[in-house]
Amino acid sequence: MNHSDLLQVAKEFGDPVYVYDANKISSQFNRLTNAFSGVPKLRLNYAVKALSNISILRLMQSMGSGLDTVSLQEVRLGLMAGFAPEDIIFTPNGVSLEEIEEASALGVQINIDNLSILEQFGSRHPKVPVCIRINPHVMAGGNTKISVGHIDSKFGISIHQIPHLLRIVELTKMNINGIHMHTGSDILDIEVFLYASEILFETAKHFPDLEFIDFGSGFKVPYKAGDIQTNIEELGEKLGKRFNDFCDEYGRDLTLAFEPGKFLVSEAGYFLAKVNVVKQTTSTVFASVDSGFNHLIRPMLYGATHEIINISNPEGKERFYSVVGYICETDTFANNKRINEISEGDILCFRNAGAYCFTMASNYNSRFRPPEVLWYNGKAILIRERETFEDLTRNQRDVKDLFQPKKQKAEAK
Ligand SMILES: Cc1ncc(COP(=O)(O)O)c(C=O)c1O
């Protein structure tokens, strides 16, 4: 998408607004598929949490993707978008047995990440095939909040608990049809994948009835030109070959599964916000936009850096700006960054806004969540409307009969 396309979307749908480029999503999907073309059975399950709009899920389905889900609600969104239950894997963490049973009743592939639920589920439903999430004890991921495969992490069943796990499987006679790991997001080094994969291969040897091995996700995408990214092609070549060798050793072709979120949708997303105020202080020039961490929390939550472009004045002289939101707390999107000269009313474009932006948005400060627009074949299609005041109040119950207004003393005279 070019700047004038984006400005056109802001004009048509107002600001702030999220825009997703369908072509970029499909080119990323094809890139990953091509990288692993040497593997006979490949399965990509899009991680719904990254961007869960039903129209995006339909786009994923049209490309042949499955879904990775972490809540019953994500499962339902997938079913609503037309996915067959067998094309959905449910990988929750810390949820109740009831939620897992409910998902299982819908027919999706269950992935269990703790021994307690594994034993309970296996005893009650020994015939339901189950995948197990292994914690390989590998330190991976761009920062501690998104590193989930290390020894202190709450995720997965420790590789040191394999003997216990095997006793549960033997006792319940349950069928383990897959093993899974996900060690973190923004993994820089493919060696980490390859190292953790070896642990998964070793673990796989304990389970004779596997159908698939799921390597999770965590591919690092670039956040600006020249930024470091996971070398998918090299990973495809190395891991693909190693996987095929493992299948020979195992005795049959298994499916190699991934569950990419960011890789598929991060770069396809643009978040557009308008500059309300340019404020010069003694040390800084702030550009305050009509948004905040209610719409894009990643900079405040993870220290993520989203490139910001002034698409209203892309040729303007570069100056230093701190781009901030309108929230009643510090909500800094960028600190003293060079941006083309900003005037009040300009539209700023935040890049990499496809993954974990809308899905992490909230109504904090009682603001509306913005609309979402899909850019498809040169056309802008509204896929979620801007919220309204009715949306904010819809589920509230007003106890107006319980409390009577009382004037403050000064006013009461
Ligand atoms: C189990 C699991 N799979 C896949 C993903 C997607 O990761 P990414 O967005 O880095 O591709 C996540 C992200 O949190 C996850 O927890």
From TrEMBL:
UniProt cofactor(s): pyridoxal 5'-phosphate
Domain Orn/DAP/Arg decarboxylase 2 N-terminal: 24-266
Binding site residues for pyridoxal 5'-phosphate: 218, 356
Similarity annotation: Belongs to the Orn/Lys/Arg decarboxylase class-II family. LysA subfamily.
Positions annotated as active site in the UniProt record: 328
Protein task: Specifically catalyzes the decarboxylation of meso-diaminopimelate (meso-DAP) to L-lysine.
Pfam families the record matches: Orn_Arg_deC_N, Orn_DAP_Arg_deC
Keyword Magnesium: no
Broadest EC class assigned to this enzyme: lyase
Domain Orn/DAP/Arg decarboxylase 2 C-terminal: 18-354
UniProt modified residues of type N6-(pyridoxal phosphate)lysine: 49
Record protein name field: Diaminopimelate decarboxylase
Keyword entries, A-Z: Amino-acid biosynthesis, Decarboxylase, Lyase, Lysine biosynthesis, Pyridoxal phosphate
Sites where the protein binds substrate: 298, 302, 329, 356
